[in-house]
Design a protein that fits this description.
Length: 294
């Protein structure tokens, strides 16, 4: 199978990339759609498509960038990066969210397909009939984004644009990390935006359907130290899921992969469309083998 990923540097996204890197037998080719190069070394079957602000990505710019990145790849053979555009000055956080959403909207699906065809490690190219799945773990907070508008740009607009990009690149299903209590009719900005993002990906026309994961508090080992958040995780773990809905990011990632594989199998039989929702406890139960996928 093939995979297209957005949000690879977030809590769930990093765990997803880790699991995709560890099992090439399931996903033989993976493309990460990024605002900047992925910060860690990647195996040869995982490539990055870097989209910037200021101009639309195109197949030609992707090709020229591939040549430019070839020398960098030879210095670091574990990572292949295609850069479509660049920013000339460091954007503010608010601008970065809007610029990334705009870049996602302008990104060319052919650039993704071109990376699937590229095979620098001498392995097999994917079959023309290999099913592709999309994974979206994009997300931030209003405080981190800098404004309500910037938050909506990333958590709704960029998500919707990624769904369109992935569908254009051939993805037949999409797994989305949303939020517990997401509701497009909510009076709360965060929950309303998450609900609107769910509706946007549901309308993108994935033949094998959309799997929406609605986790509660995400538990993980963060790359950077955040004292308050670490304390909150410690309290949540102490109280347990009965009192604080919670789930490990590794379980969210594992269930995303399971839903994509299942969607491809069902889709191959001529069905599998629609939207399947996994609430926090559903995610935990599927990850622990206590229940089947929807």
């Amino acid at each position: 199978m093939l995979a297209i990923v957005a949000g690879a540097t977030g809590q769930c996204g990093r765990e997803l990339v880790k699991q995709l890197a560890a099992d090439r037998s399931t996903f033989s080719h993976v493309v990460l759609v990024q605002r900047r190069p992925y910060p860690d070394p990647l195996p040869p079957h995982i490539k990055t498509l870097v989209i910037g602000s200021g101009s639309a990505s195109s197949a030609s710019s992707a090709s020229s960038a591939s040549s430019a990145s070839a020398s960098a790849s030879s210095a670091s053979p574990s990572t292949t990066t295609t850069t479509t555009t660049t920013t000339t000055s460091p954007p503010t956080t608010s601008n970065a969210c809007a610029e990334f959403a705009a870049a996602m909207s302008a990104a060319d699906p052919t650039a993704v397909r071109a990376l699937f065809r590229d095979e620098p490690d001498g392995g097999d190219k994917p079959s023309a009939t290999a099913p592709a799945a999309a994974f979206c773990a994009l997300g931030t907070t209003r405080a981190a984004a800098g404004s309500a508008a910037a938050f909506v740009s990333l958590d709704r607009d960029a998500v919707a644009h990624f769904a369109a990009l992935a569908r254009g690149a051939g993805a037949r299903s999409l797994a989305l990390v949303s939020s517990a209590a997401a509701d497009a009719n909510s009076a709360f900005l965060y929950l309303k935006t998450k609900g609107e993002a769910e509706a946007a990906v549901a309308a993108a026309g994935f033949p094998d359907g959309v799997d929406v994961l609605r986790p509660g508090m995400l538990l993980c080992e963060r790359q950077e130290r955040r004292t308050v958040e670490a304390f909150g995780m410690a309290v949540a773990r102490f109280l347990g899921p009965r009192w604080v809905p919670q789930v490990e990011t590794r379980d969210v990632a594992a269930v995303m992969i399971k839903t994509a594989v299942a969607a491809a199998k069902v889709g191959g039989g001529g069905g599998g469309g629609g939207v399947r929702v996994y609430e926090n406890q559903d995610i935990r139960d599927v990850a622990e083998g206590k229940r089947e996928l929807a």
